[in-house]
């Protein structure tokens, strides 16, 4: 191997190692959740497959950065995440008038209202208003769900390219041939004005979704109503769709925008 090749190889190794370390550190942080706010070293090594010494080294770095905090029971989110959380909230929070429309809709219909935008192969919940019922559909802001299933996906795929549809289909359990079904469902939803799904992603869950459009008329988000299937009989679906369409038109007229919807 000549000198130039040796230098190039040496230059690649630290970069690759650095990227791997960042991914491992993020894997540790991703173990934290509302259901598991504290994680132990054993849980970290079991979940990530990291050696104990490697995990401890990454934990120490995360602690020094303020991203993890030592707790008597293990490790929890550090104060450094507050700054990131505040920044994310200021950039990602939907307009106040949009929230009001969603809240009014949820109060009136008694079911959970979600706002989704497309991101690569998934859809991301950027806002929600939960149903007052004890038995309800819960999706947290930031949650991602695949674009190959669900009422909102059928809405968001209206303007999808053939390449995107095939990528989404390939990531599904059905394979790349499923792209034809995705296209058909999106077209049917566009013609009807709304989309419906039942147990496509969550068993026993029914959802109704309508488009939110930008100034050019392109679909930039979906507004959906979801809940247990027993509370979504056919006659209710028709009424829900009409109420959703009215709310979505109001949000569209307000000039809804979100970082993930830019360029759509």
UniProtKB/TrEMBL annotation:
Domain HTH iclR-type: start-end pairs: 19-79
Cross-referenced InterPro entries: GAF-like_dom_sf, HTH_MetabolicPath_Reg, Tscrpt_reg_IclR_C, Tscrpt_reg_IclR_N, WH-like_DNA-bd_sf, WH_DNA-bd_sf
SUPFAM superfamilies xref list: GAF domain-like (SSF55781), Winged helix' DNA-binding domain (SSF46785)
Residues annotated as domain IclR-ED: 80-257
Keyword Repeat: no
GO MF, one example: DNA binding
Name the record gives this protein: IclR family transcriptional regulator
PANTHER family: HELIX-TURN-HELIX TRANSCRIPTIONAL REGULATOR, ICLR FAMILY, HTH-TYPE TRANSCRIPTIONAL REGULATOR RV1719
Superkingdom to which the source organism belongs: Bacteria
Keywords: DNA-binding, Transcription, Transcription regulation
